[in-house]
Design a protein that fits this description.
Order of helices and strands: HHHHHHEHEHEHEEHEHEEE
Number of domains: 1
Largest sheet: 7 strands, mixed
Oligomer: single chain
CATH superfamily: Vaccinia Virus protein VP39
CATH topology: Rossmann fold
CATH architecture: 3-Layer(aba) Sandwich
Number of helices: 11
Bound molecules: S-adenosylmethionine
Radius of gyration: 23 Å
Length: 339
């Protein structure tokens, strides 16, 4: 009986979480327009001679407002039918309007996540994200192709991408014919990846203003209202009979079956661990003997430069092989590092 209640509580909590995230997306327009309204008020309160320094600021704000409307149009498409997104869960209808928002109010953290989710489209699915994408996904893809070359039927190679974000790396691997599953636990990411992977069927069909919430570090005000188009490719463009899926949930809980993956590919994932050893143990357990874990992380080095501290970001690729003898620790095979 107590167990039944616990399950019910867990389901209830999950539903509440789901509704809160949907509400965060729904609240985007109101939240963003409020921010503009406040900025406008501060501007109006400036003395005339200060306002005259930036005479076009009001025009700029009204352009930002239009961009918010475009983003919100996209958001409505993203959250459409998300109640039925998962095969194993139906979260039922999500309460609309003020009552729903009052019961499950989004936090400011949630609103930040909505904004970063929109930005993530740039890196993963736009032409302008090409270089950044290449710098973090290409080394991983190259390494996987080297380990599982074209002589091997790629559909027999099972690749798991935990912490898949908006799913581009997993998509690229599926496009090469590998049997690939992305895994992600953030509903923000899952809603957005579901939209791009399952609902976008044409290249560059959507427009988005990813930078409009960035009020600093803009060289000119037009930088802030620069749009992107996405997706840069048609996400449905996959080989016939491709085996590609996304699985929702905590990687540590979803993947318990030993010896089931030929390769685990992680990019900027390991530092999300509360306990990194549990990530390593899980990867070790689920890899087939002889399988590979290809990992790309960013390393931040602190360098002393004439007395000033300088931060330098470098990519670090680590490849681990799962040995066949039980009891042996993972062997560190190669470190290619650009420092
Ligand atoms: C820093 S992001 C990197 C995302 C993606 N690999 C990329 O390069 O864009 C880490 C991702 O891992 C996800 N994540 C964190 N912990 C997770 C877990 N235990 N199970 C599944 N996904 C997780 C986060 O939601 C986030 O999307």
């Amino acid at each position: 009986m107590a167990e039944e209640n616990n399950v019910k509580d867990a389901d209830e909590l999950e539903k509440e979480h789901f509704v809160r995230i949907v509400n965060a997306f729904k609240y985007y327009r109101l939240y963003s327009l409020n921010r503009i309204r406040n900025t406008e008020r501060y501007y109006d309160e400036l003395p005339d001679h200060h306002r005259s320094i930036i005479p076009n600021f009001r025009d700029h704000l009204s352009k930002v407002r239009n961009c918010i409307e475009t983003n919100f149009h996209l958001i409505k498409l993203i959250i459409q039918n998300t109640e039925h997104m998962f095969e194993n869960k139906n979260h039922g209808p999500v309460e609309n309007g003020e009552e729903g928002l009052r019961k499950h109010p989004p936090t400011s953290y949630d609103m930040d996540r909505v904004k970063t989710t929109l930005k993530q489209f740039v890196r993963d699915w736009s032409e302008s994200g090409r270089n950044e994408r290449a710098s973090c996904y290409d080394p991983v893809i190259r390494e996987i192709r080297r380990r599982f070359p074209p002589q091997i039927d790629p559909s027999t190679v099972f690749v798991l991408v935990p912490g898949a974000g908006l799913g581009r790396l997993a998509y690229e691997l599926a496009k090469l014919g590998y049997s690939c599953q992305g895994n992600e636990w953030s509903l923000f990411m899952l809603f957005a990846s579901n939209f791009v992977l399952n609902k976008c069927r044409e290249a560059n069909a959507h427009k988005l203003y990813p930078w409009i919430h960035q009020w600093i570090n803009n060289k000119t005000s037009s930088d802030q209202i620069e749009p992107i188009s996405f997706p840069d490719v048609n996400p449905a463009d996959l080989p016939a009979n491709s085996n590609f899926s996304m699985a929702a949930g905590d990687f540590l809980e979803v993947y318990t079956e030993p010896n089931s993956w030929d390769c685990v590919a992680t990019v900027f994932f390991i530092d999300t661990a509360h306990n990194i050893i549990s990530y390593v143990e899980t990867i070790w357990r689920i890899l087939k003997p002889g399988g590979f874990w290809v990992n790309l992380e960013i390393q931040v080095y602190k360098l002393k430069n004439f007395g000033n501290l300088k931060w330098v970001n470098k990519f670090l690729i680590l490849i681990f092989i799962r040995r066949s003898q039980p009891g042996e620790s993972a062997q560190y095979l190669r470190q290619s590092i650009s420092i």
